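Hi U.,

Before I forget, here's the chain from the pilot set. I'm dumping it here mostly so it's searchable later in email.
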Amino acid sequence: LPPAFIDVSSTEIFRDEDIDYAQRIWQTGGVAELHVWPGGFHAFTVIEPNSKLSQHAIAASANWYRRLLAFTSK
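Structure:
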């Protein structure tokens, strides 16, 4: 599998499935970055993009993409 970025709010209905997905990737030797955002809700980065939590989540995603693109461009 390609590297995966998985982020989920702590209140998401499929939170446990997302965590399980990351764990399965790790168990098979794959690369995954998992973030569980406490207090978030579904689509919180879209609905409340200026909140501190959203800003942290957006920054985490952007940083992951930067690292991924820097690695693959070498």
